[in-house]
Amino acid sequence: MKKVLITGATSGLGLEFTRYYGERGYCLHLLGRNNDKLLELKEKYSPLCEVKLWKVDLSIDEQLNHFLNQIENETYEIVINNAGLGDFGPFVKSELNKVEEMVKVNVLALTKIAHVTLQNMVKVNKGYLLNVASMAGFMSGPNMAVYYATKSYVIHLSEALTAELKNENIVVSCLCPGPVDTQFYTRSNLDNSTLFKNLWVADAPTVVMEGIFGLQKRKPINIVGFQNQVIVFASRFVSRKALVRMTQYIQEYRKK
Ligand SMILES: NC(=O)c1ccc[n+]([C@@H]2O[C@H](COP(=O)([O-])OP(=O)(O)OC[C@H]3O[C@@H](n4cnc5c(N)ncnc54)[C@H](OP(=O)(O)O)[C@@H]3O)[C@@H](O)[C@H]2O)c1
Predict the structure, then answer these.
(1) Which of 27, 80, 90, 171 sees the fewest Cβ atoms within 10 Å?
(2) What average pLDDT does this structure show over 106-126?
(3) Number of domains within the chain
């Protein structure tokens, strides 16, 4: 049976990835922190497919490493490296533990999961790895500096892996959505920002279908939505200074 690992399966995009693969009978390995939600997913999809739950906090080294040891011998057909978090607000006012959590989940855990799961994909010369970044990764983001930087890392890592694995039957695709209507908005304090007012906000099912399409079509970088594609393309023709100012303007503090 084809096996898929989905991180951040308990909310937003991860829930939709779970629905897509669960309805198609894949063996689901679902990772998240929210135990009630994980159990709910098991109950929902068990009649359709095999479900294994991983209650793991990816920001805690021991939990991440224990999980990686446990999956060392698993050969996944598909890995959706989706778990992630943001934090809106000035860098100097941000809490250091939140900064650390962001770097650990968005960068370190994603990298380690890719490293471990790709080993077995290479052995069988088959597999799909989808890393969820963001269009934020194409620019620097004042008031969300660390988040943008982490997503930039994910784009660069993914692109390099695509090149390294170009002679293998392994696909690495990087999904880069703009704003999406999920819990990310409130969890990242984006209600203090004008970002979601100024840009097109996609729904999770649309983004996930686009991500799966991009994976099947072997798209190394997959920017979701025409508006976002235009912004990323146009950003190549303005100075870095102007681009930072524009980003700052688009996601400034909301005037209450
Ligand atoms: N929504 C947007 O506007 C947007 C735009 C571009 C890119 N993205 C990216 O899309 C991905 C999914 O985000 P989303 O919009 O679906 O947000 P979401 O609804 O907040 O879901 C985030 C998921 O990540 C998991 N997660 C967060 N921290 C974790 C940790 N320490 N350990 C384990 N799991 C953790 C959460 O698990 P629990 O709920 O169990 O804690 C949850 O399942 C993220 O990488 C995000 O950066 C989102």
Answers:
(1) 90
(2) 98
(3) 1
Span from the CA of 155 to the centroid of ligand 1 (angstroms): 17
Nearest alpha carbon, ligand 1 atom 8 = 134
Cβ–ligand 1 distance for 32 under 6 Å, the answer yes
Nearest residue by C-alpha to atom 47 in ligand 1: 84
- Domain CATH for 50: 3.40.50.720
Q: What is the pLDDT of residues 192-222, one digit of tens each?
A: 898 888 889 999 999 999 999 999 999 999 9
Does this model's pTM top 0.90? yes
Residue 256 in domain: no
Q: Is 14 in the pocket of ligand 1 (CB under 6 A)?
A: yes
Structural domain contains residue 151:
yes
Cα(116)–Cα(71) distance, integer angstroms: 8
Q: Please say if the pLDDT value at position 83 is more than 80.
A: yes
**Rounded to the nearest whole angstrom, what is the distance from the C-alpha of residue 9 to the centroid of ligand 1?**
8
Q: Tell me the per-residue pLDDT of 159-170, one tens digit each, with 9 for 90 and over.
A: 999 999 999 999
Q: pLDDT averaged over the chain?
A: 96
Domain holding 25, by residue range, is 3-250
